[in-house]
């Protein structure tokens, strides 16, 4: 019985340390606001805990700024949304719609929708009304 209690306590401590490692997206981004950025892909990282797109965006004064777009976990993109690591390549021109940052890092965005080089829009999160992932939307004509 004593062994069972000690094992349970150790398991609880290990689980608690992993659970605390994840963060709420709402603590980093204004989920009730939307911005859009248009630019050229520099890097695409298909990884966990979050996918990442690094892109160059031209600002209002014509200068190039390096933006970071945080995506959902790679496993979610791969399993439920059909992404592959080759979907974005350096040099691809894309548009990202998403949530602006809460922190001082003004050159970041939580990517909610990505307009791909072929014009299709890929939705990265579940629909709030149905709680289901949305199919990609074709280009508007």
Question: Describe it for me?
Answer:
The protein is an alpha+beta fold and 141 residues long. It has a single domain (24-123), classed as Beta Barrel (OB fold (Dihydrolipoamide Acetyltransferase, E2P)). It has 2 helices and 6 strands. The longest helix is centred in the first third of the chain and has 18 residues, at 2-19. It is globular and about 70 Å long. The chain starts with a helix and ends in an 18-residue tail after the last strand.
Share of β-strand residues: 25-35%
What topology, given as strand order, has the largest sheet?
Answer: 1-2-3-5-4
Please work out how many helical segments DSSP would assign: 2
Name of the top-level CATH class? Mainly Beta
Counting copies of identical and different chains, the oligomeric state is single chain
Radius of gyration: 19 Å
CA distance, first residue to last residue: 69 Å
Average pLDDT, to the nearest integer?
Answer: 84
Could you name the ranges where pLDDT drops below 50 across 5 or more consecutive residues? 11-22
Helix percentage: 10-25%
Overall number of domains:
1
What is the ordering of alpha helices and beta strands?
A: HEEEHEEE
Q: Structural class of the secondary elements?
A: alpha+beta
Instruction: State the CATH architecture.
Output: Beta Barrel
CATH topology description: OB fold (Dihydrolipoamide Acetyltransferase, E2P)
The tally of strands reads 6
Instruction: Identify the CATH homologous superfamily.
Output: Nucleic acid-binding proteins
Shape: globular
The largest sheet is: 5 strands, mixed, barrel
